[in-house]
Write a structure and sequence with these properties.
globular, about 15% strand, alpha/beta, about 375 residues
């Protein structure tokens, strides 16, 4: 699928905005990998499994010290804190940490599989100032429970969604991993989500990292891969025409060629290390939690977080190191700049190119 003139003009403008963002590198989102413990054994987990063993939960006081160290340098109201894991709700002190952030002026939210979210827990989270929440739901019951390896996972996630749908002041969405098991039911599943009151739905595809690399049954073939984007494009068109109440977005996975401007709210931009950082469970400072350990930039137990943010992250902000192999001759390099940082392996080799898989004639 070739780029239209309108797309090229939009991408050129967005390229300038991206380079300006690199120059400023204003920190806007900070992930806290508050635990590596999880109550699921998901087939598609992309975690760096070599780091899972023996890493305990980070003490809340250590993370709050990081927050206090950066507070003089940021506007807390413009920096969003996201709790992630593992499964964040396995920590019994999430509400207390959230309240401490709220008192410091920081909005915060979390990503969860929903299994532990009942009415009482949600009430405590809301009392702690929680601003947003994302719940994972990967298809209908059979498909979801298969990928999560838990027979109660679907029912508990559905219950969580019904609970949060009642909270008027909470910003929330559902995220779905598309794979060969659920791709044929996307239209029906969208109707089901609509019935649950879901108004914001993020869709993503699986990249071969962590456990997912050991499960070829999770990978879409090229035809199925294109079907995902055609589906999202149709749903967004239906919303514009007033035929749908749901806003559908593709995740920030990679540059998608002729689908740019059609399947998400902005053109592709890997914001890791430019506007997004993370503090991992072992104290490592990185871009986002899905990026391999060879791209870590420091550690809170030996480095000042703000100094790391200001003065390191060169591999994220200057992507010339990625201008190699197939990327060196790709006509889309100026817009893609090597795709998402999470798609590189331990040897800094790109494992997955969305643009190439979509079969653009321009590649």
């Amino acid at each position: 699928m070739s780029l239209t003139l309108k797309q090229r003009l939009g991408l050129e403008l967005f390229r300038k905005l991206r380079h300006n963002s690199v120059r400023i590198h204003e920190l806007r989102s900070l992930f806290w990998e508050c635990t590596l413990r999880c109550n699921m054994n998901c087939r598609h987990c992309g975690s760096d499994c070599r780091q899972l063993s023996g890493v305990g939960d980070m003490p809340a006081a250590d993370f709050l010290r990081v927050i206090d160290s950066i507070t003089p340098h940021v506007d807390p109201h413009k920096l969003f804190i996201i709790f992630t894991g593992g499964e964040a709700l396995l920590r019994p002190d999430i509400e207390e940490v959230g309240l401490q952030l709220y008192r410091r002026g920081y909005p915060w939210g979390m990503v969860t599989n929903g299994y532990l979210l009942d009415e009482q827990r949600l009430a405590r989270l809301m009392a702690g100032g929680m601003h947003s929440i994302t719940v994972s739901l990967d298809g209908f019951e059979g498909d979801h429970n298969w990928i999560r390896r838990n027979d109660q996972s679907f029912a508990r996630a559905e219950q969580a969604i019904r609970l949060i749908a009642r909270e008027r002041e909470l910003v929330w969405d559902v995220v779905t991993c598309v794979n060969p098991h659920n791709i044929d039911s996307l239209d029906d599943f969208k109707s089901y989500l609509d019935g649950l009151g879901v108004r914001y739905w993020r869709v993503f595809t699986i990249f071969p990292m962590g456990r997912a690399a050991q499960n070829p049954d999770l990978q879409l073939d090229d035809s199925q891969f294109r079907r995902v984007f055609d589906f999202i494009e149709r749903q967004r068109a239906a919303e514009r025409e007033g035929k749908s109440r749901m806003h559908v977005n593709y995740g920030c996975e990679g540059f998608v060629g002729g689908y740019e401007g059609k399947v998400r709210d902005h053109y592709f931009f890997c914001r890791a290390g430019i506007e997004v950082a993370s503090v991992l469970a072992d104290g490592s400072i990185s871009g986002c939690t899905s990026i391999r350990s060879n791209f870590h930039q420091g550690n809170i137990y030996r480095d000042d977080f703000w100094q790391v943010w200001q003065n390191r992250f060169e591999p994220y902000r200057d992507r010339q190191w990625a201008h190699k192999d197939a990327c060196a001759s790709c006509k889309m390099w100026r817009y893609c700049e090597g795709s998402g940082m999470h798609l590189y392996d331990d040897q800094s080799q790109l494992l997955f190119c969305h643009y190439n898989r979509l079969g653009s004639a321009e590649h």
